UniProtKB/TrEMBL annotation:
Keywords of this entry: Iron, Metal-binding
Organism: Anaerosolibacter carboniphilus
Family, per entry: Belongs to the hemerythrin family.
Record protein name field: Hemerythrin
Keyword Iron: yes
Length: 130
């Protein structure tokens, strides 16, 4: 489980709130992974993937609009990273998810948390610094 800390804040309220929501999506995956009473997790995993897909598209669009508005000089490198993330989520093979939903949950959790934390702390933090 990932807990939002003030150090993750980039100082732009709208973007920080959206980042917090990404943590919530990741934490819903974490809770599902730890739920021993749920025997068939496939539909819930698919829903988490869809939530992540839709929300990241919304968030990246919002963040990119903000970067354009402030003439952020690293906009294009950010856009490339955002597009790569979306491609990875769109490339999810649901047959593989169906074969082993728990393993896929572990993989998607690691991806969400690692990518999000690294991206926020190493890339998005620079937005406010300029």
């Amino acid at each position: 489980m990932l807990i939002w800390k003030e150090e993750y804040s980039i100082g732009v309220e709208l973007i920080d709130a959206q980042h917090q929501h990404l943590f919530e999506i990741g934490n819903s995956a974490y809770k599902l992974l730890r739920d021993d009473f749920c025997t068939d997790k496939y539909d819930k995993v698919v829903q988490i993937i869809e939530d992540l897909r839709q929300y990241t598209q919304f968030h990246f669009k919002s963040e990119e609009e903000y970067m354009k508005k402030i003439n952020y000089r690293r906009y294009f490198s950010q856009k490339v990273e955002h597009d790569d993330f979306i491609r990875k989520i769109n490339a999810v093979n649901l047959d593989i998810v169906d074969e082993n939903p728990e393993k896929y949950l572990e993989d998607i959790l690691a991806f969400i948390f690692n990518w999000t934390l690294e991206h926020i702390l190493q890339k998005d933090k620079l937005i406010k610094a300029e």
